[in-house]
Design a protein that fits this description.
alpha+beta; about 35% helix; 3-stranded antiparallel β-sheet; about 30% strand
């Protein structure tokens, strides 16, 4: 399943795929702009620190899942 990160916006919620996030612009302490691939910008109604923390947590989970899969399959065939 493709992981999404939920971001609060002024109009509701946006569901963001972390691998498409290029940068986060924090002009104010209460909101930020998420710059994504293909020129998409999302105006978030929450602090950049909160968004970055969720993106980093998702990236860590993805890395851990890949490492676990590689470790379990390393040198062994299917059971």
């Amino acid at each position: 399943m493709i992981p999404f990160v939920v971001v609060k916006t002024k109009a509701g919620f946006a569901y963001v795929r972390p691998e498409h996030v290029i940068a986060i612009n924090a002009a104010d302490g209460e909101d930020c702009a998420i710059l994504m691939s293909h020129g998409v910008t999302i105006a978030a109604a929450e602090p950049a620190e909160d968004v970055v923390a969720r993106l980093e947590a998702e990236a860590r989970e993805q890395d851990d899942a890949l490492l676990t899969k590689e470790h379990n399959n390393h040198g062994h065939g299917p059971r």
